[in-house]
Amino acid sequence: MPISSHTDSSKELTTLTATGGVTFEEIIEVVKGFKDDPPEKNILWDYCEAYPEDRFEAEDMDRIAALAKTNLNLRNQANGKTAFVATSDFIFGLARMYTTYLELLGPSHDIQVFRSLGEAHQWLAE
Question: Which of 5, 15, 3, 99 is nearest to 52 (CA)?
């Protein structure tokens, strides 16, 4: 699976790093896995070295958002943040689409999309 997970409890951060081709099903499996292994307060999705393995549709982003919304209470603490980092325009656009779908589902946690890991880490530390 091209999505690896690393937890740094001292920073209250779970980092999910995608490399190579990533499928919709792999993302869904990671989000479903939060029920068995809840993430830290903050989550960083690193897509800097990833590309979509197959075609992603708007409905896919809506399904991921709906699943993620059901998992919000699994975080170790309230007021968590989620940062997405994408260097490719396509994945950046998908991440923005996802955040829009999540916002349409109602109140959520803070979520931002960035072009660099440095910006994301800075925002998560605030």
Answer: 3
> Is 8 in contact with 15 (CB distance < 8 Å)?
yes
Domains and CATH numbers, the chain: 3-125 (3.30.750.24)
CA angle, 66 then 18 then 99, to 5°: 30
Count of CA atoms in the C-beta half-sphere (13 A) of 67: 18
- The strand pairing partners of 22, in sequence order, are 52
pTM of the predicted model as reported, rounded to 2 decimal places: 0.88
From the list 112, 106, 119, 108, the residue with the least C-alpha distance to 92 is: 112
Counting as low any pLDDT under 50, the low residues of the chain are 76
